[in-house]
Each structure stands twice: as structure tokens, then as C-alpha cells.
Write a structure and sequence with these properties.
Order of helices and strands: EEHEHHEHHEEE
Mean pLDDT: 81
Largest sheet: 4 strands, parallel
Low-confidence stretches: none
Strand order of the largest sheet: 2-1-3-4
Number of helices: 5
Length: 179
């Protein structure tokens, strides 16, 4: 698990790699791009030979604020991140999770990777302010959902249907923040 923490709000732990400084963020994006390129080429070569593509180990990348992350990235790294997000396929076994404020989502909702991979039927909302969201449209029945639920609750939307959930935190390392 790799966390690209654009706004520096997460605390690193021994359980995942958390990066929040410009140089290390740029390097990790370049590393991930290289991995995805290698997996793409390996898959393509195997298919051309009539072979089954290999099963790759799973990489999970959590992006905490895409907007803040892009501010810290070079133009080259921004392009590579967009390519990662657009060209990533489940067969490569690399998964991205984006955490973002509702107003910031509008700034990248027109990008090709967003249009290709993001569905507004399966998503998570954490904390209060659900009724004030900007990007996610309101579906039938959502008008009955409470807006004030506290920071320790959220909504999980699966196939467009909302479920109120209680967020769990671990009693892990001292000073560890919820992710």
C-alpha cells in the first residue's frame, strides 16, 4: 500500500508507505509509472505469443487530495500520473483510491481518466455535509438521508444505493490517524 498524501494530513506507519514531500512524491509516481509500463508490455508480449498474461502482485495506491498532489508534482509527473489513472487496467493489479473534498472533484471531473474509470454509483462519503456536495448528483431517495452524521460516520453507495456506516479506527500506533 502506497499513500500519496498531497496535503500532508496523514501520519506514516509501518503498515504502509506514506509520502507527502514533493521530491518523494515525484519519484514514487515515476516508479509506479515504470511498474505499470512494465506490466503493460509484459501482458502485451504474452498475448502476442498466445500465452496467458502473468498474475502480478497487488499494488494499492491511495491518493489523499489529487488537487494538492498535483500542485507538488512536476509537469512530467503530472502527465505520468494521468497516464497511470487512465491506462490502468484491473489485469495489471494496480488499484487507485482517491480521497478528495467535494468542491475539488469538479477540477478534474472532465479528465479522460475520470470519465473512463470513475462511476458515480459506487463511492463513499465521510462526515457531515452530504447535502452540500458538488460533483455527485442526487439520486432518488437520497433526500431522506440525514445530512448531519458526524465525522465518525459516512455513506457507502453501492450501485447507487446508500448505506449509513460507522467508521472504524484501529487502536494501532500512538498518534496514528484514521485513513
Amino acid at each position: 500500500v502506497v499513500v500519496l498524501d498531497g496535503n500532508g494530513s496523514m501520519s506514516p506507519t509501518s503498515r504502509y508507505c506514506c509520502l507527502s514531500e514533493g521530491t518523494t512524491l515525484n519519484q514514487k509516481v515515476n516508479d509506479l509509472f515504470g511498474i505499470l509500463l512494465e506490466r503493460n508490455n509484459t501482458t502485451k508480449d504474452a498475448l502476442e505469443k498466445g500465452e496467458k498474461p502473468p498474475q502480478f502482485h497487488t499494488i494499492i495506491c491511495i491518493i489523499n487530495s489529487f488537487v494538492d498532489l498535483n500542485i507538488q508534482l512536476t509537469d512530467d509527473s503530472q502527465s505520468k500520473l494521468s497516464a497511470l489513472l487512465e491506462k490502468g487496467e484491473s489485469s495489471y493489479n494496480v488499484y487507485f483510491f482517491l480521497g478528495e473534498t467535494s468542491p475539488n472533484m469538479a477540477s478534474y471531473s472532465t479528465r479522460s481518466w475520470y470519465k473512463k474509470h470513475i462511476t458515480l454509483e459506487n463511492w463513499i462519503w465521510i462526515g457531515n455535509g452530504f447535502k452540500n456536495r458538488y460533483q455527485v448528483s442526487e439520486d432518488q431517495g437520497e433526500e431522506d438521508l440525514p445530512d448531519s452524521i458526524g465525522d465518525d460516520c459516512g455513506y457507502v453507495f453501492k450501485n447507487g444505493k446508500a448505506t449509513l456506516v460507522k467508521l472504524l479506527t484501529s487502536a494501532g500506533e500512538k498518534g496514528e490517524k484514521r485513513i
